[in-house]
Design brief:
Length: 65
């Protein structure tokens, strides 16, 4: 169950990033995180903290919800 949630979250982040036409490198630089960390999040391999989720939401200009 938790693994599916992480995969869905990663898919959502990847879709929002691609919708803006950003590479992982571009988004990571805008948000202030490492590209490999972002890649792991997008693949559902990281249990990301609420603080990092907030950084990504701000960078993507979306609400955290």
């Amino acid at each position: 169950m938790a693994e599916r949630l992480l995969i869905r979250l990663g898919d959502r982040i990847r879709n929002l990033r691609k919708k803006r036409g950003w590479t992982q490198v571009e988004m990571a630089e805008k948000v202030g995180i490492d590209r490999s960390f972002l890649a792991d999040v997008e693949r559902g391999k990281r249990n990301v903290s609420i603080l990092n989720l907030d950084l990504m939401a701000q960078g993507l200009n979306v609400s955290l919800s």
